[in-house]
Structure formats: C-alpha cells, structure tokens
Amino acid sequence: MNHPDLHETQFEVVVASRTRGADGIDLFELAPVAGLSLPGWNAGSHIDVVLPDGDVRQYSLSGPPQPGRSESWRIGVLREPDGRGGSEWLHSGVQAGDRLTVAGPRNHFEFQPVHGTSYVLVAGGIGITPISSMAAAAERAGVSYEVHYAGRSRSTMALLDELPDAETHVYAADEGRRLDLDALFTGMKPFTTTFCCGPTRLIEAIEKAAAGRQLVVERFAPREVGEPVLQEAFEVELALTGVTVTVPPDRSVLDVAEEAGALVLSSCREGTCGTCETVVLEGEVDHRDSILTPDEQAANEVMYVCVSRAACPRLVLEL
Ligand code: FES
Predict the structure, then answer these.
(1) Is the pLDDT of residue 101 over 60?
(2) Which of 47, 158, 248, 305 gives the lowest tally of CB atoms within 10 Å of its CB?
(3) Do 310 and 266 have their domain in common?
C-alpha cells in the first residue's frame, strides 16, 4: 500500500500513439514531455487521467512492467457510451500528439511473483489490462502461471496477441467456450494464488468459487456493502491537523476532514482508487472500500476515508 507522495502529483504526458486494441477498445501510449521520463511501475499499477472538468478516472497500465524509469505507459480504454464520460471523452476527443494530465502510477493490485507459488490470472473483458502486465511479470520471473481470459468474442478482446499461447486459455462466448470457475478451483494445484480483474459479476462469481482460497481481485465498480456498523455520529481526531471533528451519519470522514482544513488527497470518492488511503492510529474501522483484502481490513492499519467509517465512537487518524 502506498501513502500520498509525489506519485499523487499531476503532470502532463503526450499521447504518443492511439491504436485499435479491439472492437470498442483503444490503446493510448503515453510518453513524457520532452526531456523527461515517466515513473516506473509494477504489474497491477494504474494511473489517474484527469478529465477536462477536473474529474479523474483510473486506467490500468498494460504490457511488460517497467520498475525503473519508463519510456512510455500504455492504457487500454473501453468505450462506454453509458458510462460516466471518461472513456467517451478519451475516444472522441483525444488523438496522438495531444497532452493529457495524469497522476501516478499507484498500485493496489500488486503482483510480486514468488518462486514456489503458482499463479492463475483471470481476466474478463477490459480487465485484461492489468492481467497482461502480470502475465509479462510472471514470464520474466520464470514462475508457473496460466491466464484465463473471457470475453464476448475475440474481436472484442484486446491484447490477445501479446499473451503467450501456451499459458493462455481464451473463453469467447460466441465460440461457445465459457469459463468454468468451479472447475478452475477444483483442479488447482496447492500453493496457487489467483488474481482476477473484470466486471462485477465475474468478481462476485470468482469470490464464491474461491471459497477461501488465495484470491486477489480488482473491481471496476464499488462492491455492495451493507448498513454501516454505527448508525450514529462518531468522532475523528485528526492527529496532524490538531482538531477533533464529528462525522454525522450522512457525511464521509473525507468531507468532514477537508472542511476542517486537513490535507487529504482524493480521486474516485467511491472506495476504488486508493488515493485517500489514511493511516489509522487508534480505533476500529468499518471498512467499506473495494480495495483491501479481508486480512488487510483485519489489520486495521489504514482506511479509505471517502467511504469507510468508524466501528467505534472515536478514531484517531494520521491527517
Ligand atoms: S478517493 Fe478513491 S478510494 Fe478514496
């Protein structure tokens, strides 16, 4: 997990090329402006792209990771006419030669291959972007891995030609091949970790099929959460700002902390991007984000203040 640092600073990049990745998916290669290079990145990283209205969208970096400095980054963008507008703007308004404002990279879907562990990498649709970087990292590290990639048809599935044939299983619905997640887990070797990125219904299905086995997921959209643990207001001591605030049931910790003058970086405000990660100094958190694993939630070391709340009357946060 990262804490706010220079990777949160916004800066400009040039769109070096824009190419067709598949039906409805374009690949944007982003290069540094003259004389600079880009920060390095590991498999599973994403960047923020700032839209003209200041809103921010997250896109995973694809292809072989570059842990040192990077010559260029590449994102794959699925055009979603009924989405929130980010992909539509990129597809209709951004061409090679244009500049984009970005921030990052950050990584909340980290893949660090370890010898002796096998990896199953599962992608649904545009979820292939981070999974492609994991496959490249696994290949480079020489660990055992396989890729399971599901989509409507091969024409809608980007990066197919970059995945190693021997390790890749393709499930194109129009060819009658469907990914059987129960069979996948039943036949799994011991010491296997599964990574999955894709639409909500795939994530929900794989969490069910995994039945407690090692699984790391990345969601495009926030997970469903139940009622907050506390229905009433709670106190938050902002240790760095030096004030204690009261968070009412209808407001987020982020909103109240910002109003009190705390410097809190934020982006998605829905618990998916990780930008507002905050260190918990005291108190029990009601984790309502879509990022932390159950073990990380239980560790109670950080929280995402845009959505998570208190599970006790008072929290002390490093804000
Ligand atoms: S702002 Fe994105 S997780 Fe909080």
Answers:
(1) yes
(2) 248
(3) yes
